[in-house]
Amino acid sequence: MSQSYDRGLIEDFGRWREFTAGMWAWVFHKFTGWVLIGYLFTHIAVLSTSMQGAKTFNSTIQGLESLALVRLLEVGLLAVAVFHILNGIRLLFVDLGVGLESQDKSFYASLVLTGIIVVASVPTFVSGAF
Amino acid sequence: MAQRYSSFSSGSTAWLLQRITAAFLVIVLAFHFFQLHFVTHAYEIEFAGSQARMENVGYFVTMVLFLVTATFHGVNGVYNALVNQGIDGIQKRVVQIVLGAAALLLVVQGIRVANTLAGF
Amino acid sequence: MYEHDVIVVGGGGAGLRAAIAAHEEGADVAIVTKLHPVRSHTGAAEGGINAALQEGDSWQDHAYDTMKGSDYLGDAPAVDTFAQDAPEEVIQLEHWGMPFSREEDGTVSQRPFGGLSFPRTTYAGAETGHHMLHTLYEQVVKRGIEVYDEWYVSQVAVTDEDDPNERDCHGVVAWDVQSGEIAGFRARDGVILATGGLGQAYDHTTNAVANTGDGVAIAYRAGVPMEDMEMIQFHPTTLPSTGVLISEGVRGEGGILYNSEGERFMFEYGYATNDGELASRDVVARAELTEVQEGRGIDDEYVYLDMRHLGEERITDRLENILHLARDFEGVDGLEEPMPVKPGQHYAMGGIEVNEHGETCIDGLYAAGECACVSLHGGNRLGGNALPELLVFGARAGSHAAGADMPEPKIQTGPDPDAEREDLGVPVGEPGATEAAADGGAVENPDSDPEAVVEATAEEERERIETLLEREDGVNHADVRADLQESMTENVNVFREEENLEQALRDIQDARERYQDVYVADKSRTFNTDLQHTIETRNLLDVAEAITMGALARDEFRGAHWRKEHQERKDDEYLKHTLVSWNDGEPELWYRPVILEGDEQTYEPKIRSY
Amino acid sequence: MSTQTPDTDSENEQPSSTSPQERRMAEKQARKEQREADEAAAANEIQGETVELKVFRYDPEIEGKEEPRFDSFTVPFEKGMTVLDALIYARDEYDSSLTFRHSCRQAVCGSDAFFVNGSQRLGCQTQIADLDGPVRVEPLPHQDVVKDLVVEMDHFYDQMESVDPFFDPDETPDDELEEQRQDRENREKVKLSTRCIWCGACMSSCNIAAGDNKYLGPAAINKAYRFYMDEREGENKRQERLEIIEAEHGVWRCQTQFSCTNVCPKDIPLTDHIQELKREAVKQNLKFW
Ligand SMILES: Cc1cc2nc3c(=O)[nH]c(=O)nc-3n(C[C@H](O)[C@H](O)[C@H](O)COP(=O)(O)OP(=O)(O)OC[C@H]3O[C@@H](n4cnc5c(N)ncnc54)[C@H](O)[C@@H]3O)c2cc1C
Ligand code: HEM
Ligand code: SF4
Ligand code: F3S
Ligand code: FES
Known about the structure:
The complex is a heterotetramer of chains A (130), B (120), C (610) and D (289).
Chain B: H1 11-39, H2 47-55, H3 57-84, H4 89-118
Chain C: E1 2-9, H1 13-24, E2 29-33, E3 49-50, H2 59-69, H3 76-95, E4 110-111, E5 121-122, H4 128-143, E6 146-149, E7 151-158, E8 169-176, E9 182-193, H5 214-222, E10 226-227, E11 232-238, H6 249-252, E12 256-258, H7 265-268, H8 281-293, E13 303-306, H9 312-318, H10 320-330, E14 339-348, E15 351-353, E16 365-367, E17 372-373, H11 386-401, E18 421-422, H12 450-470, E19 475-476, H13 477-491, H14 498-515, E20 518-519, H15 529-553, H16 571-574, E21 576-581, E22 588-593
Parallel strand pairs in C: 1-2, 1-9, 2-6, 9-16, 15-17, 19-20
Antiparallel strand pairs in C: 3-5, 4-5, 7-8, 8-9, 10-15, 10-21, 11-14, 12-13, 13-14, 18-22, 21-22
Helix pairs in contact in C: 1-4, 1-11, 2-3, 3-11, 5-15, 13-14, 13-15, 14-15
Chain D: H1 7-13, H2 20-45, E1 50-57, E2 69-76, H3 83-93, E3 113-116, E4 119-122, E5 135-138, E6 145-147, E7 150-151, H4 154-162, H5 184-191, H6 201-205, H7 207-211, H8 218-228, H9 235-245, H10 259-263, H11 270-286
Parallel strand pairs in D: 1-5
Antiparallel strand pairs in D: 1-2, 3-4, 3-5, 6-7
Helix pairs in contact in D: 4-8, 8-9, 8-11
FE3-S4 cluster is lined by residues 205-206, 208, 218, 254-260, 270-271, 274 of chain D.
């Protein structure tokens, strides 16, 4: 057998510039999914403070909520969740075989909608923190 | 020839459940976010409030279901992502065990929290 | 050394069908092919497969049309066998799942085609060949037939008796393109050559780059005569830059041809005052070339085929794939502009001389498909008759090689000492044919043990390749090939004049001499296409020479063969096949009479008019 | 009747003060310079429009090519020129060792799928005029490179063949001349799936196939679809084939990236077909509940 040259994984990541809509959707969906499940773990961990009693619970939550950083992270979480939901819905349609021809458009729509929802929610999210 | 499988674990079930949980999550997650960021603002959250909500059986059940479906959905998603990256053999076994344990832990701990809150 | 009962060289329609047939006969078969089977040029066929399937049609009619189409240069036993076997073969394909186009009631559709007295062309959309090729390959996979893909066969291993009729073929020698390994393949029962067309002898062709006439040249150098090589079909509407075929459908739907003056020349200049654009292929091709030669071509090269007037709706409905072809391969939008077209080489009616079982004169050596000449198409192939040929004669060659019982053949093969010979008076042949570096001819081999024959041939091949690779400087084969193609297109095209044909022979001779100094710049053993093309060019020289010799010798106008000096068909003189034998590198041209007595009728030469 | 002695004889006899190796190297150098000069001259000579090609080069055996690199070629542009035409020109005029598969020149043989300006395309089906220069041509990503633009296809073929890609009815009509019937509608349904030319572009574009070597890949799944949906197919085979495609590395691996559908030169709606098979598998399994 002749040798052949395996260009390895670097290739894939080097090619991100050439990704098309469906691939970006896949990348983002993956990323947001992982963030969400990561968050779920942290979330439950934080809530577990309630098991030590109401005080600890309250002070932890309010302590966290008073941090601007946490507020910003929450906006991030919202963005992540909203995108995952919208693109998730898009994927559900794709699974049903509906609207496959406009899969790229629906992806862009998810992005735009996510943007709008997040921007619109910012005031509610950060109010009181700054 | 690529190998054949006896297909003892049907991928279709996991796939379908991932979609069904997703559909369910759309609703609950939206509700959850709305409830805790818009109806009650996050910074206003207090033990008492959470307790009050949790004492409602309907809410309690929804939250537990939310937890279970989200866990399944998330963990199965992660597992799928890893299989897509071509894990196999021992590696795959380990991932299955770790993810399974993590999921179990998450669900158990989550239910305990909910119980505490509800005061059951 | 690899060993099998039957070795099939080539994985196109003919090769695959032969392999399946041999396998069904119980043989251990292997296909050795330079392209993966699904890459074969059978996949390019668009139009369809002829077979008399319907009520009201009969194999006799199909045979009659074929014989008439051949301009009475077909051999009746081949024509009859063909027409009789075709229906079963086509239905066989259907049973194998081929996605034929269907009628309302679910039966396969048939459409009319040029030269047929009945609509008997079955088809699968506009990509019949593609579906046929894939369907056959699927059956090969199903049967687990071994395929050595990307193995280039360069020689057949043949014993060295003086008379080719007494030689035996014991296998082939091939090299693995990917690794450079050269190996012998021993065939216990037979070798079937199914290497396809030779369009690369011309620079403008509908054929693939891989269609280099390898099988024809290999068999020729092993002692098998080439038959009717001068009979080359040209298609009038091919795209100038690539040779991609624009189907007759465009003209059928009402597309018109015009020249640079905007004249509808088929009528204006009286080439075909009745049928106009729909006159037969050769007539239209000659008309186009005349226009160009008389200065009314566009860019001195092509004419326009215009379908804009048909309207967008009709075009997208019926000719959509043409829009894609023009767009993808010529960068022209057929809805906005006329499409440039010119004639291109399309099909070789001639080839390796075989009988109706696919046997050559060398025992154990068979040929089928476009590389073979059972003498079915004679002077002119009817559209849709090549694909069924692959099936019918591929299957027969496969069965026979695997030892099936078959009746005595009626067609004779092999050099005949009593035949009428002709000397063209122009130098032809191979300088240095007997030198070590030259390939082909029977390898000297005192030992008649089959394995030794294969091994000795392989050894010779290793030496030759070594020699080619060792040369550090010399001529690039691409230059030789380009000159050859140019000369062939210039001189042995649709128009054939004595002077030009002689010029072509001199050019070929020239090219041969230059080829003696050919060198391979790429020294790698890995996927060396430079080496492969160099060897292919050598094959092209041999087939081009035979084409030209035949064209020069045949002083008449028959089928696709048009001679300026001889404008009529001469039945009393030329109802005979042209054969060219290798003869140690000095080609010898001789004739064998056409067989017109068929199973049920004797075909009477009639005027070929439609 | 030979009039000429083969070149090699005289060459071998050359009295050499230097070792043959050195001599060859020197000659090689000279030739290289000559070639470069020729190329430069040719490039200068070219009147009118030209195209700049950047082509990936690699050869495990040839010094200087063992490390992959890009070579540039300047090729005269002609109307209607395709990427394949440009490559052929570069090979025939400048560097005959430039290696790529190609055959039909008309998008039916599927041998010349390359990575052109960041996308999987057939060289013969891509008009240079449609591309931004310089045109960058690379071998298909995610497949091992054998040499230059030639990639290892065996894995792709294995995947294609692993779905039992052949028709296998339970029974065919007894009469040799009697065909099986197929509804026009059913033929329409499988029509697009039968157009596949095995070029491998889709497989190369799919990130999942890149990560998971066992994933059947879009082309093989499409092949399975072609038979699964054919009403003439036998029930037994249909079930068997379904099992193959719904195994762990079958349809479930597809993450609907759509890249396969985007690049397929035959416009086969691959994602569509994969999704339909997923649903089909779910349906079949639900029956047993
Ligand atoms: C554009 C076009 C349209 C056509 N349309 C029709 C039509 O509508 N109807 C019709 O009946 N006919 C049609 N024809 C003619 C018909 O398609 C061909 O004659 C036929 O397909 C040839 O098949 P084959 O099996 O002989 O050769 P091919 O399909 O060309 O196969 C040759 C095989 O041999 C192999 N091979 C070659 N040389 C070597 C070697 N040295 N070593 C190893 N392997 C080798 C190749 O790899 C290949 O697998 C058309 C032809 C063209 C070009
Ligand atoms: C709210 C509605 C949600 C919808 C509609 C949704 C939808 C989906 C869908 C359809 C997939 C499968 C993608 C595929 O297989 O191609 C998926 C994957 C995933 N989801 Fe969700 N999801 C939702 C919420 C969540 C939540 C709450 C979490 C976290 C707990 C989560 C975590 C994940 C993860 C980790 C993946 C796998 C991502 C990957 O491919 O790597 N999702 N989601
Ligand atoms: S499905 Fe399309 S892209 Fe994939 S191999 Fe077939 S033709 Fe090529
Ligand atoms: S690119 Fe891959 S992920 Fe699915 S849609 Fe195509 S197979
Ligand atoms: S050369 Fe055959 S597909 Fe491009």
